[in-house]
Structures are given as C-alpha cells and as structure tokens.
Amino acid sequence: MIAGDRASRPGGRTARVRSDVLAAVESELAEHGYDGLTIGAVAARSGVHRTTLYRRWKTVAGLLVDLLEAGADDSWEPADTGSLEGDLIAVNREIHAALTTRPSITQAMIAASFRTTDAADALTRFWEDRYARTALVVSRAVARGEIPSDTDAHQVLLTATAPLYHQVILLRQPMSRDQADRHARIAAASVR
Amino acid sequence: MIAGDRASRPGGRTARVRSDVLAAVESELAEHGYDGLTIGAVAARSGVHRTTLYRRWKTVAGLLVDLLEAGADDSWEPADTGSLEGDLIAVNREIHAALTTRPSITQAMIAASFRTTDAADALTRFWEDRYARTALVVSRAVARGEIPSDTDAHQVLLTATAPLYHQVILLRQPMSRDQADRHARIAAASVR
Fold first, then answer.
1. pLDDT of A40-93, one tens digit each?
2. Burial class of residue B51 in the structure, from the number of CB atoms within 10 Å of its CB (0-12 exposed, 13-18 middle, 19+ buried)
3. Where is the HTH tetR-type domain (chains A, B) (predicted)?
4. CB-CB neighbors (< 8 A) of A165 in chain B
5. CATH code for the part of the protein at B13-72
6. Which residues have a Cβ under 8 Å from the Cβ of B31 and sit 6 or more positions away?
7. Third-level CATH fold of B84-190
8. Across the interface, do A131 and B189 touch by the CB < 8 Å criterion?
9. Separation CA A90–CA A85 (nearest Å)
10. Interface pTM (ipTM) of the complex?
11. For testing the chain B interface, which of A165, A167, A181 should be mutated: the one with the most B CBs within 10 Å?
C-alpha cells in the first residue's frame, strides 16, 4: 500500500534516476530501517552520485518524502469483492501484510514521521489520499443498497483499520490475520 | 491516564527527589515536548543537581522510562458507570482528554518511543498494564450478564480506543469527543 509501482513511470533520464533512487531507498529502509538509512548507502545502491542526491533531495527526510509522494500518485484502489465486509477484509489484509513484512517499509515510514516534520507532513498527505481512495468501498456499498446513503465512510474505515495499526505500531504487539478480519467484520456490521 | 498522582507516595528524601524530578519532567515535556526535554532543564526546574540526575537516570530516555513506571503503579482503574457502553465512553473520554490537551504528555511519550528502545519498551509495558486494568469494564459487563462470558476483552477495548489513537497520533487529524463516544458505542454494540 505504501510504495507504488514505479517501473512503468514514463520519462527520460531524470525519471529513471528518480526511479532508481527511490527503489534504493525502499530497499535500504527494508533492510536497515530508518536509523540505518543514509545518503551514502542510497548512492552506493542506486549507482547515482552522492552529489546528485544532495542537490535534488537534500536529506534522508527529503528522500522519504519523495518515496511517499511517488507512492501517492500510483493507481492503487481497493479490491472490489462485491460486499462491504469482503472489501474491508481485503483492505485489512493489505495493511496486515504491509505491517507484518519484516522489515516493514510502512513501519520505517511511521518511525521517520516522529523524527522530522517533513516526513510527518508527507505521511499525513499520503494517508489522507489513501483513506480518500479507500472510501470507494463505502460508496460502492451505498450504490448496491447494502448500507444507508448517509454512512460515515471515514468512521467505517477507522473502525476496520485502526485496531490493526494501533496494535502493531503503538502497542507493539502482533495481530493475527484472523483478528484483522474480525475487525473488518465489526466495521461492516456497525453500519448495516 | 499517563501520569499517576505521585503526591501521596510515601518515603523519605529519595522518594521526594524522585517525585520532584518526575514532576519537572512532566512539566518540561508538556511545555517543550520531547525535543525540548533536557537534563539541564529538568535540573533547573526540580532544584535537583544535574550530577544526581546523571547518576540516577543517566539519560533523558531514562527519565521518561521512570515517569512511565511511576504512572503504572498508581491506583487507576476505569470508571464504573453501570453499563459496558457507559464505561467505554468514559475510557475514551479520558484518552481523548490526554491526547487533545496541548501540549500532550501522552503524545510526547509516544514520540519518544520512536526514538529510543528504552522508551518504546517502557511504553509497551505501560500500555499492557493499562489495557489489562481496563479489561475490568468487560468482566463487569460479563458479571452483570450484559455480554457473553467468552467475550474477547482486548478486541472490545481495541475497537473502542484504537480509532481515537490512530486518528490523532498516526493520521495526525483531530477527533471530536462525539466521534470518540461513537467508537465506544460501536465497540459495545459489537459484543451485545
């Protein structure tokens, strides 16, 4: 959910450099976490010169912000399973996968957001965009006549997704996929 | 919910020093946040010598860990309103107040937990203790015959409280007290 597919990005050398650099940031984050992320390591892995990195992205936080922004303009949308419950279960399974992959890029991003306001602002914008897109599961359910037309989409999405984030990120405890499914069901039932 | 009442702590000079120091940490955090918290400022505010602080608490993280541990052994328990829904609303209102007070000590603690593993471990232990105590709202409801005896207490508490933490801490958006009440109601309804 965090990182979009940049392979198909059009453009020439500049776009290719960005794509290589962001792929290197993602790999470094996944392997070493936020604390191990350095401009030098990104330069070595991407084959892009350190000077270029400093000129264009300035800091490690700048690289993270760009990684989030690249993720935000991809074509992600929630799976259409035919029911609100099924759609919310699918959403939670994506989040569950993103949070439980070890090491998790999502977790690294969240850690970064508590270090620099640039990363925090970028993460806020990113999540606003993702929750707005995910609201499609609610409008589809309204269109099917499954739930009332005045259903509060954000409330439903929070009910489904927040327990998973809270348990893993703030309480720092595991949550099984079954438990994540259960919170999706509670959210769907809350508006039926 | 984070900081217990240490005024009544028994003991002599050592206990008084700890009490003064932790009160100073709390005030400094509230005024300047985690980034503004220094041993020097805590020394100045508490009137306890810097050398004593370094000897006993070593670092700013050490002070935070002790603040959390002091909070954990207080006598907090959830309000008894006579119904699961009422109890969960009361719990969420306490969390809401702790998160929306500006500046929020809870928010500073969470930020600190993403900087040092000592603070993260201390926060994890603190929350485990608080969620275990809050499970009383579920066992009271079971004893009243309001909900089934095999109700998953942690699931109910997550359903009620996680949306509030997620919205304010990770999504960095406001949540009204009415919305917090609504999530408490959804949690109560999910097990009836």
1. 999 999 999 999 999 999 988 889 888 877 876 678 899 999 999 999 999 999
2. exposed
3. 15-75
4. 162, 166, 170
5. 1.10.10.60
6. B103
7. Tetracycline Repressor; domain 2 (1.10.357)
8. no
9. 9
10. 0.86
11. A165
